[in-house]
Structures are given as structure tokens and as C-alpha cells.
Design a protein that fits this description.
Length: 480
């Protein structure tokens, strides 16, 4: 059986690259401009500035990317769970056989989603403490310089300047910014921080209070003042800040971070400065009240002085009374010295009498003491004379007993029983045969006397020399 060639097909053959390129061209030509509604999922901001996320609904998921150049122009910051309408084009990624949407613009899907976004952002910033009441600073009563952050071409700045001129003209510094659209939030935040960065006493005066103002508009028009960077700049401001964005019914997040909220830009100017005419009238009224109070006080003092003068006595009578009392004091003083001397003499006599009595008492006490001492000494002498014979008799009896005891322990009692003590020529006792040398003269003491003998040579074996006894230590007597 032979192999037959396979029949050729009329279906065109593509390479992978050709097919991927054809698909990419078809997709980009067919979907070169699309608007897609979906929920943001898996949002990630790359360090390069590109945004990567997915748009999904209940049944499908579409990968999306927003390049860095378009990301900075987006009106909103994408977050997970946010429902948006993205505008852009579809393209493919041949390297992984995927397709994705390149987003060029993005907006919230509806006002409900926008309100949910603002409510979530408000809760998050409130949890950080940016809206805390203790962060609020008081507005100066009469600021010297007022800084205004608003559009330079709108009616807002004219209304503020007009209202300030009516109430109390002040120096105004305008920092022009865009109040809606791309980049508006960044400009407002930069203006607030720029005013705070001005040095005190520098060439440009530092404002005492700031007004961030904008006219009314839709929720989308006021979104720049709901951005997080604007809210943080307002909360960080060291200069007290008044928020005046929109009409009375409009509320933005900067209102919660500001130190004071005004319903309109005109109301912000009214809260920034008092009414000059009212101040002048108030000062005039206070001046008039001060003058009236001073006049009443002077009148009261004059009346009190008159009453005091009427209550004072006649000076002549006062002097006469003083002169009379002086004469009386002088007369009493003349008599006082003799009286004093007499009283002191009487006191001295009384004290001398008491002193004599005390001396006699002391002498009597001394004599009595001496008599008692003499009597005690006599008694002690008599007791001593009687005690001495008794003491001597007791000591004699004790001494006699000690002598008899000592005699009972004497070695002479032993000699009386038939023993003898042998001594050498020096009077030392001989206590062994070895110590008796032939020819040596010895003394033998008996109970009734001593005889002299001479040692003769004998056959007795020489005894081993004995170690002499230790000398007596004196604690016990010897019988020999």
C-alpha cells in the first residue's frame, strides 16, 4: 500500500502573529470609541503612574488600564466598588491573548453613586479626626489682612469685596484658582498651603483669616471641594479658614474641615469682619456711658466729702481738748515719780524681810543636817568597833581549819606510817635505782629524822633513764 498525498485545503493558513495582529486590528477598528458602565474591581496604582483595574457586572469582567498621561486628568479617583462610566477604546494584548479597555475619561455612573462616594470619604476622614471640634480655631474679631481663594473672574470675588467695603474695609489678598474641572482641587489645596507658607512680617503680608469661596452649582461642579487633598489642606491650615462654597443648601467636605462655614460668599465676608458703623456707634455709646459713670462717681465722691466735713469736729475745740489732756498728763507725770519710788521702797523692804527669813531657814536646815550626819557617823563607829572582833574571830577559825587541812595533806604523815624520802646531795628526791650512783652520798628522811648513807656497787641492772617529770605549774602542791 502506497501513501497518497493529502488533498490541499482552500482555507487560508495564518501564523500566530498574523492572527493576533488581525484580531487587534479588527477590535480596534470596531471598538475605537466605547462607553462602558461597570463596577471598579482590583484597582491598583503602579509606581509609574499607570492605573490598572477591571470593570465588572453580574456576568462578565473587562480588564482596563489608564495610562499616566490620562490618569492625572481623570475627574475622580477610582476606588474598588465604585460604579463608573468609562470612556475609551478596546485593544488586545497579543502576548497573552487578552483584550482590554484603554480608559481616557471616567465619571460616576449616577448621583447616587457619587453621594455614596462622598459619604464613604466623609466617614473615613472623620475617623482620622479631621472634622473634630477641638481642631477648630476662632476667627479673629478684626483681621488686618484677609486671604481669598476663588476664581478671579467670577462674581464671588466682587461680592466679597463689595461686602467688605460696606462693613469694614480691609486689605484683601486674592489667590486665583480654578473652582471646577481638571486640576481645580490641586489649585485650591496649593493656594491654602501657599497662604500658610507666607512668613510673618515678609514682603507679602500673611493673612489673618482665609476665605475659600465658590458660587452655587451641581454636585459635579462642586466636586473639587470634596476632594481629599482639599479637605486635608483645610484641616492643616494654621490660619483660621472660612468655607463659603455654593448656596445655603450645598454642603461639601471642606465645610466640615473649615473652622467656620458660611452659607454664601457674601455671608463669609460678613463673618470675617464686623460692621464699622456699628463699632463706631458702640464705641460712642460706651464712651457716653463711661462719661456718665465718671460724672456720677465724681458727684458721689463730692457728696461723701461734704458729709465727712460736716461730721468732723471744730479744729479749735480739738486743739483745746488736746492741750487740756496734755496738762493733766504733765501733772500726773510730776506726781508719778515720787509715788513710783515709794512703791519700789516698800517692795524692797518686803523682799528684804522675805530674804532674811529664807537665810534663817537655810541656816537651820544646815545645822539640822550637820547634827544628823554627826549622829550617823557615831552610830557607824560603834557598829564598826563591835564588828571588828567578830570578823577577826571568823578569820582565825577559817585559818585554823585551812592549816589542819594542809597538815593532813603533808608528806610527813606518810613518813610516820613507815615510809622514807631519799634525797641526793642537792636535796632533790631520788625516785629510781638508776639515779643512785655508786659511791654517791644520799640522805634518807624518816618520820623522826634524817640519816646519811653511801651507795655501794650492786648487781642490779641499770634502769632505763626515766624522763624527768614536768616541773610543777603551781596549780597543785607537792607532798615532798
Amino acid at each position: 500500500m502506497t501513501d497518497e498525498p493529502a488533498p490541499k485545503s482552500n482555507i487560508p493558513e495564518y501564523s500566530v502573529s498574523e492572527l493576533s495582529g488581525s484580531l487587534r486590528k479588527t477590535v480596534e477598528e470596531t471598538f475605537s470609541f466605547v462607553r462602558v458602565r461597570g463596577e471598579v474591581s482590583g484597582f491598583k496604582r503602579h509606581t509609574s503612574g499607570h492605573l490598572y483595574f477591571a470593570l465588572k457586572d453580574a456576568e462578565a469582567v473587562l480588564d482596563a488600564v489608564c495610562w499616566r498621561g490620562q490618569a492625572v486628568k481623570l475627574g475622580i479617583g477610582p476606588e474598588d466598588g465604585m460604579e463608573v462610566v468609562a470612556t475609551g477604546r478596546l485593544t488586545t494584548y497579543p502576548g497573552r491573548s487578552k483584550y482590554q479597555m484603554v480608559v481616557e475619561r471616567m465619571e460616576l455612573a449616577g448621583q447616587g453613586a457619587l453621594l455614596k462616594l462622598l459619604e464613604d470619604r466623609k466617614k473615613r476622614l472623620m475617623a482620622e479626626g479631621l472634622f473634630a471640634p477641638e481642631r477648630k480655631r476662632p476667627i479673629p474679631f478684626l483681621p488686618e489682612v484677609i486671604g481669598v481663594v476663588t476664581s478671579p473672574t467670577g462674581a464671588v470675588i466682587r461680592d466679597i469685596l463689595h461686602r467688605l467695603a460696606e462693613r469694614f474695609p480691609r486689605h484683601v489678598l486674592l489667590w486665583p484658582v480654578a473652582v471646577q474641572g481638571d486640576g481645580a482641587a490641586a489649585q485650591v489645596a496649593a493656594a491654602i498651603r501657599g497662604f500658610n507658607a507666607l512668613p510673618v512680617g515678609g514682603p507679602v503680608p500673611r493673612p489673618d483669616v482665609l476665605i475659600v469661596a465658590r458660587g452655587g452649582g451641581s454636585l459635579e461642579d462642586l466636586m473639587a471641594f470634596n476632594e481629599e487633598e482639599v479637605v486635608r489642606a483645610a484641616a492643616e491650615s494654621v490660619i483660621p479658614l472660612i468655607s463659603a462654597v455654593g448656596h445655603e443648601t450645598d454642603t461639601t467636605l471642606i465645610d466640615f474641615a473649615a473652622d467656620l462655614r458660611a452659607p454664601t460668599p457674601t455671608a463669609a465676608a460678613e463673618k470675617a469682619v464686623p460692621v464699622r458703623a456699628e463699632l463706631v456707634a458702640g464705641l460712642a455709646e460706651q464712651g457716653a456711658r463711661l462719661v456718665g459713670a465718671m460724672m456720677r462717681a465724681l458727684e458721689d465722691r463730692r457728696r461723701h466729702l461734704d458729709q465727712t466735713f460736716r461730721a468732723l469736729p471744730n479744729p479749735r475745740r480739738v486743739i483745746e481738748d488736746c492741750a487740756r489732756r496734755l496738762d493733766e498728763r504733765a501733772e500726773r507725770l510730776d506726781n508719778a515719780l515720787p509715788n513710783l519710788v515709794e512703791r519700789r521702797r516698800i517692795d524692797l523692804d518686803r523682799l528684804a524681810t522675805r530674804l532674811d527669813h529664807a537665810v534663817r531657814t537655810v541656816r537651820a536646815a544646815e545645822q539640822a543636817g550637820q547634827e544628823r550626819g554627826r549622829l550617823q557617823l557615831d552610830q557607824a563607829g560603834r557598829r564598826l568597833a563591835a564588828a571588828m572582833p567578830r570578823l577577826l574571830s571568823d578569820r582565825a577559825i577559817h585559818l585554823d581549819g585551812a592549816g589542819k587541812l594542809l597538815e593532813s595533806f603533808s608528806y610527813r604523815k606518810v613518813l610516820e606510817r613507815g615510809y622514807a624520802v631519799i634525797r641526793d646531795g642537792h636535796g632533790h628526791p631520788v625516785v629510781s635505782a638508776a639515779a643512785a650512783k655508786p659511791g654517791a652520798g644520799l640522805g634518807v628522811e624518816f618520820g623522826d629524822g634524817t640519816i646519811q648513807v653511801v651507795v655501794q656497787a650492786g648487781s642490779a641492772p641499770a634502769a632505763k633513764p626515766r624522763k624527768p617529770p614536768p616541773p610543777p605549774d603551781g596549780r597543785q602542791g607537792s607532798l615532798l
